[in-house]
Structure formats: C-alpha cells, structure tokens
Amino acid sequence: MSKSVIHTDKAPQAIGTYSQAIKSGTTVYLSGQIPLVAETMEMVSDDFAEQAEQVFKNVQAVCQAAGGSTNDLAKVNIFLTDLSNFATVNEIMSKHFKQPYPARAAIGVKELPKGAQIEIDGVMELPE
Q1: What is the DSSP letter of 16?
Q2: Which domains are assigned to the chain?
Q3: Model pLDDT for residues 60-69, shown as the tens digit of each residue
Q4: What start and end residues bound the annotated signal peptide (predicted)?
C-alpha cells in the first residue's frame, strides 16, 4: 500500500524531520501538534486554555487537509506538562468532537517542544 504526505498551511509547519501527517490507505497518522500559530510559527500564548484551543485547531486543520474531520479520529494521545489541566482539556475537547469520542490517552510528560504545555497526535480512519 502506498503512502502519501498530508500538508496544509493552516497548521504549523514541521519543525523537524517529520510530516504533518501520513496517509496509508484510509488511515491517516497525525504527527503531534503543539500550540503554534501557523502564520507566525509562534506560541499562541502562555495560557494553558489558549494553548489547548490552538492545538485542537491545528489538529482539525490537518484532519481537513487529509479529507476528514476530528470526528474521524479513532485514537488521540494528549501529552500534558501538568496533569492538573486534565479537566480543561476535557472541556475544550468537547467543543471540537462529537460523540462517539475517539479512544484517548492523556500522558504527563516533563517537557514538550518549544516550551508547549500540550501536544496532541492521533490516528484517523477516513470514511470509505
């Protein structure tokens, strides 16, 4: 099965040796998104809620570039530098997803690229 690169200018450009997403068949593997604003490649703010909102917008932009939406995500991983922000993530995520929600893990980590407080990656299954 061939794979193709998914790219959009509506999400931050890769800051390393990776693609925003890779599509293989009807499955799309999304790289981690941090709260960078695509147009400036700068962090949206130091406020956690604003960072979380930006990350979900970035994930949504990559999903759309692949031909899907956040509701097509089967699995997401959320990396947090402070697990006390878990409730805020749930509140913001509920604005970007409809039920049934994807499978999910929330993982506490020491640090993330560029000092981000949140990063999200995922696996999306496109409708056939």
Answers
A1: S
A2: 1-123 (3.30.1330.40)
A3: 999 999 999 9
A4: none
pLDDT confidence bin for 34, thresholds 50/70/90: very high
d(CA 90, CA 75): 15
Contacts from 110-116 at CB under 8 Å and sequence distance 24+? Answer: 110/81, 111/81, 112/34, 112/79, 112/81, 113/15, 113/34, 114/15, 114/34, 114/36, 114/43, 115/43, 116/34, 116/35, 116/36, 116/43, 116/51, 116/55, 116/81
Q: Is the pTM of this model over 0.70?
A: yes
Helix axes 86-96, 48-65, angle to 10 degrees: 40
d(CA 70, CA 25): 18
d(CA 78, CA 105): 6
CA distance 119 to 35: 7
